[in-house]
Amino acid sequence: MIEIKDLHKSYKMGSNSLHVLKGINFSVKEGELVAIMGSSGSGKSTLLNILGMLDEADSGTYFLDNVPIKGLNETKAAKYRNKFLGFVFQSFNLINYKTALENVALPLYYQRKNRKERAEKAMDYLSKVGLAEWATHLPSELSGGQKQRVAIARALAADPKVLLADEPTGALDSKTSYEVMDIIQTINDEGKTILVVTHEPDIADMCKRIVHLKDGVIVEDKPVKQIRASQYV
Amino acid sequence: MFDRDRWREIFEAIGKNKLRTFLSGFTVALGILIFTILLGLGNGLLNSFLSSFVDDAQNVMFIRSGNTSKAYKGFQENRKIQFKNEDFEFIKNNYIGKVEFATPRIYRDGLAKYKKESGSYGIRAVHPDHQYLEKTIMMNGRYINEADLKERTKNIVIGRLVEKDLFKNESVLGKMLNIDGIQYKIVGVFQDSGGDNEERLIYMPYTTVQLLFGNNDYLDQINLSYNMTMSTEKAIAFSKQIEKDLKERFRVAPDDQSAIRVYSLAEDIKETMVVLRGIYLIIFVIGIGTLISGVIGIGNIMTFSVKERTKELGIRKALGASPGSIIAMVLQESVLITAIAGYMGLLVGILVLKLIGNSLKEFFILNPKVDTGVIIVATMILIFFGLLAGYIPARRAAKIKPIIALRDE
């Protein structure tokens, strides 16, 4: 599903440049649930941004579902993002003047689905994360866990190939974190490929594979025995 | 442009960000309001000036005589120039095709009496053509005619207010009116748009006055109207020609300003129109300036709005919004706000002009209004500037990098 070879990325900081990713080789098969771990500054967010086509690598190759991701213009990148990827952010990033349902329906709007279909699909995904009754509520009326569940529903709505979650539990208490992880595991059980960036070991242990990043290189890449989040809920 | 879903998105964004919408709309509405009112008042000024010319036909010329101010060809200065019937005939017959109507005028005053009522009125002794030159409108009966001239009848035509003053509600046609001891027969009643003074006049045949007062053929003034097909420039040249011919006829120095004067409304109208166009231009420039500052205002607010929405636009881009769709969204929002707010400003402006109506008559503003053509042009300008005001922030919005927008603070 994801094939990365010799990926480099550096940022210009005034006169000197900061080498963030120093040759990453990494592949993910369909249906995997991968945790990307590392301390801050290890390059894990940069890697995720490149995977999410929000940023571009300086060198190296990136294939997503056998499609080369390189030199895309903005319009094309937007199209690919919409088609291939679903995002879940630490700070939820819901649009505050739209209801839960409208937020979930937004990626479908950019897929040019008609209104009725958007509403139906969005409602399906909201029920899936257990928030059907909250469909007409604004984000400000939802708890943190509920917001993240709406964000997950939104990321799923476009039926992407890969779900990218950047510290999805970073702003949540542990009980709520496990609830969110439970949903992520359920989705993964259904076959969705998911990448989770986290620095919390207990969250990483709920994935099927852990990739450790340090100073821009992968120092460890091992499968783990998955701990089910449902036992804590 | 005609994507229904996009409009729905925009209406939603507008509806849920009322303060932002109100602020940007308000500047534009205010700009258009001021623009409309200024333009309307300008038109009012124009109407007011134009209405001061409608009393008389606009192609009219007045020829007056006085005393010479210079000795010329053996004649002493201070010689009185007196027009006579032959001069009137000269004017009438010498410029065939150029002169449309011509009439002499003799001015008198008289004390008119009917039963117990009496009043002093101005009398004008005229030719039947006078009716067309003065735009006299007959309410009852008829004007002076050729037969009156020939027979030197004592038939008179009285103004609406003379009738009102002296006869109250009696019907006047055929009644006799005593003016300075002589009985005249009233054959008509007229009205005139020139105001009350013009309607307190009495017209009679000039031949009659010449017979009754001095038995001469003297005339005080000759009025004529030139052929309307002549341009203003040609008309001014024509009036110069008449002045020159008459000066030769009376042996008056060509540069004598007081002996014979030809006064043409054409010149007056031309000068006034130049001044008015100037005023109108100034008003227009100020109006456009106001409009532009309104548009700059909306540009500012759109910029601010884009900044405020950085995160939202970043999310949209992460979810698959193309830069084009972001530009279209911001632009359409800007155009929509400009168009609606501008239209409201326009409506309020028109309403204000309606309310003003003729209440500012004493400030030379008559019937202020803007015409449809100008409104359409203003609307187009508005939409155009709305696009312009929206475009720069829209482009900035499209360039927002999702990672920067979504970075946690």
From TrEMBL, chain A:
Keywords from the named record: ATP-binding, Nucleotide-binding, Translocase, Transport
Transmembrane spans: none
Domain of life: Bacteria
Domain (ABC transporter) ranges: 2-233
Gene3D superfamilies membership: P-loop containing nucleotide triphosphate hydrolases
GO cellular component labels: membrane protein complex
Pfam families to which the protein is assigned, alphabetical: ABC_tran
InterPro entries (alphabetical): AAA+_ATPase, ABC_transporter-like_ATP-bd, ABC_transporter-like_CS, MacB-like_ATP-bd, P-loop_NTPase
GO molecular function terms attached to this record: ATP binding; ATP hydrolysis activity; transmembrane transporter activity
Similarity remark: Belongs to the ABC transporter superfamily. Macrolide exporter (TC 3.A.1.122) family.
Protein name: ABC transporter ATP-binding protein
Organism: Aquimarina muelleri
Automatic annotation (TrEMBL), chain B:
Residue span, MacB-like periplasmic core domain: 21-235
One GO location term (cellular component): plasma membrane
GO molecular function, one term: transmembrane transporter activity
Alphabetical UniProt keywords: Cell membrane, Membrane, Transmembrane, Transmembrane helix
Top-level taxon of the source organism: Bacteria
InterPro entries reported in the protein's UniProt record: ABC3_permease_C, MacB_PCD, Macrolide_Exporter_MacB
Compartments reported by the entry: Cell membrane
Chain ranges passing through the membrane: 21-42, 279-306, 326-353, 373-392
Annotated ranges, domain ABC3 transporter permease C-terminal: 285-402
Membrane topology, from the record: Multi-pass membrane protein
Homology family: Belongs to the ABC-4 integral membrane protein family.
Protein name stated in the entry: ABC transporter permease
Species for this entry: Aquimarina muelleri
